[in-house]
Fold this sequence. Notes:
The protein is mostly helical. It is 79% helix and 0% strand.
Amino acid sequence: MANQKEKEKKKMGLSTQIFIALLLGAVSGVLIHYYMPDSSFKNDILMNGILYVIGNGFIRLMQMLVVPLVFCSLVCGSMAIGDTKTLGKVGVKTILFYILTTALAISLALGVASLINPGVGMDITVEEGTTTAAATTASINFADTLLNMIPKNIFSSLAEGDMLPVIVFALFVGIMLAKLGNKASTVANFFSQFNDVMMEMTMSIMKVAPIGVFCLIAKTFAGIGFDAFLPMLKYMFSVILTLALQCFGVYQLLLFIFTRLNPFKFVKKFFPVMAFAFSTSTSNATIPMSVDTLSKKIGVSKRISSFTIPLGATINMDGTSIMQGVAVVFIAQAYGMTLTPSAILTVIATATIASIGTAGVPSVGLVTLSMVLSSVGLPTEGIALIMGIDRILDMLRTAVNITGDAVCTTIIAKLEGAFNKEIFDKDFKEEA
């Protein structure tokens, strides 16, 4: 218990450090922009030397992790889900529902962000040498997007960081390992242990995140001054608005359509769990409380919830998908790049499929975002713009994630005849 509390403190400490680094970087950048005269020291040594090297060095460390981390996470994630025969009807329905809501979440995020245009006005110059995949993407139609998901040569896809084929192959490997069971236990253990190694590397690299964020933000603000503040506020508003629409709109509409239950009553009874998730910022910690609340206050059988809730904490990342959808539009607009219809489809597919293997892991959402950006040719340096404020949004995302799990569980329980409406209709006096 003591060790767990210590770990939580460390996480909070790191998040606070990143936020402070964001503020200091912004202030330093503004001061450099307005008060430091143009000189060789400012341009060559400070901005294009120290700040550029350290900031982009951090980004490269994150990029280094993307392919092996996502590949191993997805293999392990799909392996844990196992063969659909073993899962049965409940498992298949649950997985399909989670995938559907994730796809809806990121589509909604892309739509809201496109209306608000959070990145317009930043006008950040793309650094020389930035990937030109966006140009390639522009010429790819829908049929090609689907075909490109199947790798012709998996080693080539891994080497080039072509994420959609890597994701498909990883899922396929994981399902086959689950099917073979003990016959392939050595290979399964290898991926499981290598995944642990990658997670540890991620945590280690995130320790230097404050320095990387400071340098990247300072360089950005040094180039454009106060003009960067408004777009960042618009980004936050876009994410919060989309999270609210997903939580209180999409989820409750689906609940009513499939169960005819009162959404307001559901939210009222489940709200303490949402508040707990918001305060702890971790889906895993809310699992016991979610199962208990669904059983005692909403009327869901524990036979269903004990399976669907842990599974949701593993593969259902609607909140993170929303952040990624808004971030993609924000970064594209900030760098003056256009998202084509095929690029949007790629973002939806990549973020949806990737959610299976990366849920519930601290800081990996940002690494996954790096993968999503790379898949459509957007500069990964843009992650620094949102990193500092991500902690606040992460708390809201967690509340949305666990609400999605609960709504899915209630729908599945109703469809499977494992729901007690009398309990749902009964009013409970909240105890402190």
